[in-house]
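Request: How about a record?
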Amino acid sequence: MLVPIVAAAALMSYLVWRLHQQRSMFKDLPGPPHHAIWGHFLVMREIADCLPPDATPQLFAHLMRKRYGLGDFFYLDLWPLAPPQLVIAHPEMASQVTQKMNLPKESAIMQKWTGHILGKKSMVTANGHDWKIARKSFTSGFQPQKLLQHVPSIVDDALGFCEVLKVHARTQDVFKMEDLSARMIFNISARVILGLKCNAQRDDDEFLELFRKQASLAPQDFWSRYLYDISPQRHYQKWKHGRALDRYVGRIVDERIVHVPDEKSKYHAIDEAIATNRDYHSLSDKETRDMLIASVKTLIFAGHDTSASTICYIYAALSKHPEVLSRVREEHTNVFGPNPSSAPAMLRADPKLVNNLPYTLAVIKEALRLWPPTGVSLRHGVPGQTLKQADGTEWPTYPFAVLVNNCATMRREDLFKDPERFFPERHLVADPADPYFVPKDAWRPFEKGPRNCLGQTLALMQLKIALVMTLRTFDFAIVYENGTYMYQTLDVTAKPSQGLPTRVRMVYSI
């Protein structure tokens, strides 16, 4: 009887000591009101109560800054459910973390969120040698000149998207735009990266469904990202679907290794990666093969997931800003002529035309500023590496998880005039004296530094082509009912609520 009592007392004493130690860490650190017992849980609850239950937590830092008048960075104490955090919300501070120090990724936490989908060697979570090898392997396949070769096939997939939209235009039904756009972008990603022709727009594609089964098992709210999943069934499902996904991708990788394309046809990203590793490693090596599989999964899943959401945000914004839509359509007419049906042939003949759309690019950039699908870059502090203010004051990065919250940065009033306004013109301003000029490094949806998004050129290219193919042919009406509205939900990345219910109307026959 005495042993359990002593054990319980010892445990209680340890927890009290640990709590005191943890809460004391934040005594002299900048942040919102801190409670000696609850840390910042009460603050997080207040912020969460301002948002729908399924809203993405990347908005929390922005709302917290406004409510409590916080500065360029602040610390959060969420122990025991989350590690101590340093939140960055300023481009100069962010550049210290991502470019100057290039702090390592917070791999353990990120593996909890996406490990079952992307794998342990994913280039978004790996550090050191593993990351360098993965990044180097796929960099050449995503160079702009390489990607221009894929414009004709991207046009084909965009036209397939138009065919599906025409069906919805005839029936005048309400559909989920996020699902539709994700299917198109998945086709593009699979073709560019693997040379694989999927049929996701017209049918249930096995490859896409494998990804979706895994994504459905990801945490759907803020706290479940940090809590351990106690469901044996969910762990089994993650293992089962993950194994099937690895087998699917592994089979394709093995086929590409055996059947080496000639130099002329070697323009898919996987072929470039295999060629790079053929020079330095044995391709039969399990470690190299696992890296290739994880990288392919990362590039296809992250690429299609984020770009699909961005298309939705653009259509939603243009439906509310007809003056912007009119100017985009005017640019498309100036580049491709008055007949929208001529654009596909012109792009196939001269892929570089995709680079002659500055206002369309500005619209994309403004949508990414207001609704970034991934608005947080998660790093881990390092002993001796400090955050430096302009006055020379230094603040610790260790032992904190460092959240570079670009969502909060890109809504700052001192960086973006009228930050809540959808105003693409700001991205065309070149004069620093203009109030709408975007400061250096302030726009960062693809992050900055060595670990910026490898697929950003492809993302912008496919978005521009999709808009060229659709904006002069269709009108998009966003159809939320019963008092609901568009906001960003947490579904692996930040997606539009309810999948963006949409109705389309044809304005030009193609």
User: Anything to note?
Assistant: The chain has a mean pLDDT of 91. The domain at 2-114+129-390+401-506 is CATH 1.10.630.10 (Cytochrome p450).
